[in-house]
Amino acid sequence: MTTLPRLVLCLWCALLLIPVSAQPLVEPEVVQYWDFEQMADPWVSLNPQAIVGLTAAQDDVLAGTSSLEVKYLFRAVNTGMEGILNGSAVVPLPGGAPGMAGISLWFKSSKTTTALVGGRENGGGAYMAPFFAPAGMWQQVTLGLDDFYPMDEMPDPNGKLDPEQLEGLGVVDASGFLSTLLGKLPVAGFEPGARRMYLDEVKLLAVAPEKETVPYPLEGPAPVVLDSCDREAIRWIVVGGRDWKAIREADEPNDQGAGTGHYRFEYTLPGGTLVAWLKPVRQGQLADTKALHLALRAGQKLTLMVSVEEKGKARYAQQIEANAGDEWTYLTIPWDDLSLEKDSKDDNGKLDPEQITLLTLADPSGLAGEPEDYKRVLWLNGVCASK
Ligand SMILES: [Ca+2]
Ligand SMILES: [Ca+2]
Ligand SMILES: [Ca+2]
User: Is residue 258 classed as helix, strand or coil in its secondary structure?
Assistant: First the structure.
């Protein structure tokens, strides 16, 4: 990632020139609120060819009588501006968003894709929170400031998201951008064609969303939760495969570690390829942790790979098994069990949890297979790291 994010950045900067009319506060706990009942303004798209407006079509309105609609042509190309711009809905924040502790919004895409909520500070860093967007489904995305990940190529002088310095934020159809960024396998939703995205009930929250918990019976201090799977949006970048169906299902109350929900991923794995789930990690978030914990089950017994990447790109990996059937497998994977990958180098020769910036789960079971399609189902719950 070198020049492409900078191009996005320049466009983002151009937004500052657009005049803004904010709507009045409606609830004491909300810093700013857009219901898209009167006008789309000041929301715009970073893609100058996209059409931004309001829609009153019943199926496309979440609340009230209208929502924001962005119509655009998704270009599945790996290079140039077209590949990264595609669809977006962003709002300039000329005065920043002082007092903002989180964001809640409702999003729907006409096609299955990978989207992100992004924000950019003036003169500083850019932050993103990617999530999976199933076709035609309204879903609520709720994020605290800690749920945003810094973008490497746009370093932030103080290393933290400062709401009062935000110059704009919004939602981007990011499957093109992320495919470019990751450079190997296409991210879910990387298919050309006409698309529409919808936003409604966007709230900049004055109070951070409740901290996520994973109620496993773990010894020691409270674990660092990477994903409780209890919030509605699936905050993973899904890579490779096709025909993705990813949804959140309700937990059975008696499940060990049950919160309110878990994820179900259904996908086609073409023989000779792999699929992966990527979870960005804030550097330092996993400091002092000893082991990764997660719960898995699968439509058939599967050998998966779990791996982590340090800031310096050293990658450590370990095989894990997902059992078939209704019973969850609760896995504890000590960091000490992970081995440095053969094509990877580490300057200090050891895995440093505080340096981890990416967690990856992968299904490599298609790599050795015949050139045919494999149908897979995988369930995931309660991802955390214990101290
Ligand atoms: Ca509305
Ligand atoms: Ca900052
Ligand atoms: Ca290291």
Answer: coil
> Does residue 217 sit within a domain?
no
Q: What is the number of the ligand closest to the CA of 345?
A: 3
Which tokens go with 112?
């299955």
C-alpha 47 to ligand 2 mean position (Å): 26
Give the whole-angstrom CA distance, residue 268 versus residue 261.
23
Tell me the CA–centroid distance for residue 66 and ligand 1, in Å. 5
- Provide the domain count of the chain: 2
Which residue, among 238, 246, 212, has the nearest Cα to 135 in the 3D structure? 246
Shortest-distance ligand to the CA of residue 122: 2
The pTM (predicted TM-score) of the whole model is 0.90
Same domain assignment for residues 238 and 369: yes
Q: How far is the CA of 113 from the centre of ligand 3 (A)?
A: 34
Nearest ligand to the C-alpha atom of residue 346: 3
Task: Quote the ligand 1 centre to 181 CA distance (angstroms).
Answer: 33
Alpha carbon of residue 267 to chain centroid: 18
Of 170, 205, 240, which residue sits at a domain end? Answer: 205
Mean pLDDT (10-residue bins), the chain, 387 residues: 47 49 61 96 94 97 98 80 79 96 98 95 92 96 95 84 96 88 82 95 96 82 93 93 90 75 94 94 96 95 96 95 90 97 95 97 89 93 94
C-alpha 236/C-alpha 234 separation (Å) is 6
At residue 8, the pLDDT reads 52
Ligand closest to Cα of 313 equals: 3
Q: What is the pLDDT of residue 1?
A: 39
Domain extent at residue 252: 224-386
In the reported structure, the alpha carbon of residue 14 is separated from the centroid of ligand 2 by a whole-number distance in angstroms of 20
Residue 187 within a domain: yes
Q: Which two tokens stand for residue 374?
A: 């494999």
Q: 148 CA to middle of ligand 2, Å? A: 12
State whether 239 and 101 are in the same domain.
Answer: no
